[in-house]
Specification:
Elements lengths: L1 E23 L9 E11 L5 E4 L5 E7 L3 E14 L14 H6 L20 H10 L6 H15 L1 E2 L10 H7 L1 E2 L1 H14 L4 E8 L14 E8 L3 E5 L11 E7 L8 E6 L4 E13 L4
Parallel strand pairs: 6-7
Antiparallel strand pairs: 1-4, 1-5, 1-12, 1-13, 2-5, 3-4, 8-9, 8-11, 9-10
């Protein structure tokens, strides 16, 4: 598919602020069956933009606004080509779960089997993860079982959580949004020694689709399996990411990939407005 993504973040401050330093992770990645054809980033008040690649290989734009201002607008527009190459048959053979649990994690993947800022503890998840995957012998099948458990047993409830909600809270309350579902599934996978990482991006909701999380930034996860590499799972919709998904960044959890974050001097009173629109410039084949 050929998709266009428009993402606008707007802050209106109660009083003038100054010395605003920011970083944005908004450029779609060119990876895993996805190509970013074009990307523009517009910031008002106008300022100089720079970018770098972070330690997780995500593109990060940085900018600062020294003068006083009462509003900040960050507008990203992207054109992306996606394919369904990333989707695996559900019964694809993979490493035995017992072997994965008994083998030291390969260098470079250690961070993805450890607790992190939002995937805060794995101890409560261990017994549940083992119960869900009882009788499952392969790691890919186990990861899919964990995804389907979250999809079927957790309630999708907007505004029931916030961006700083921990996995342990969601696990206890069993409700939340796509960010929370991703964090819980990541925790369950890590509890079984399956490397798992958080993915930020977008989801195109076509005229015939009934998908959750398509009206804003979306989140899912990827698990790493030695023979298969990184493979995506979306517990919010109970499926593998296909050509309707646009990947932006990946990390240990949301804390590594938030679309926009920064600091400034001045009032803490502000109004935040976020607009996201994903449109199809070319539809997928029937």
């Amino acid at each position: 598919m050929k998709l266009q993504v428009y993402h606008r973040t707007h802050y209106r401050y109660a009083a003038a602020v100054r010395e605003s330093f920011n970083e944005a992770r908004l450029r779609p990645a060119t990876i895993d069956g996805q190509v970013c054809q074009s990307f523009t980033l517009k910031v008002l008040p106008a300022t100089r933009l720079a970018h770098y690649t972070d330690f997780l290989q995500n593109c990060v734009h940085v900018f600062d606004i020294g003068e006083t201002h009462s509003e900040l607008s960050v507008e990203a527009t992207s054109t992306v080509i996606t394919t369904s190459e990333r989707v695996l048959p559900p019964d694809t053979s993979s490493t035995l779960l017992t072997k994965l649990q008994q083998t030291p994690v390969a260098a470079g993947y250690h961070d993805f089997v450890q607790p992190s800022r939002f995937v805060d503890t794995l101890v409560p998840a261990q017994a549940l993860a083992r119960e869900i995957t009882a009788g499952v012998d392969q790691a890919w099948l186990a990861a899919q079982a964990l995804m389907q458990f979250v999809h079927s047993n957790f309630v999708y409830k907007p505004a029931s959580t916030h961006v700083h909600t921990l996995m342990s809270e969601v696990l206890a309350n069993r409700c939340g949004v796509c960010q929370d579902f991703a964090h819980v599934t990541i925790g369950l996978c890590r509890a079984l020694n399956i490397p798992a990482r958080y993915v930020s991006g977008y989801l195109y909701n076509g005229p015939l689709d009934q998908l959750r999380g398509a009206q804003a930034s979306h989140a899912w996860l990827e698990v790493y399996l030695p023979e298969l590499g990184w493979r995506g799972l979306d517990p919010t919709n109970g499926q593998q990411p296909d050509e309707r998904y646009v990947k932006i960044a990946s990390g240990r959890d949301y804390g590594d990939v938030s679309p926009l974050r920064g600091t400034y001097r001045g009032t803490s009173e502000r109004k935040l407005t976020v607009e996201v629109l994903v449109t199809a410039l070319e539809q997928r084949a029937a």
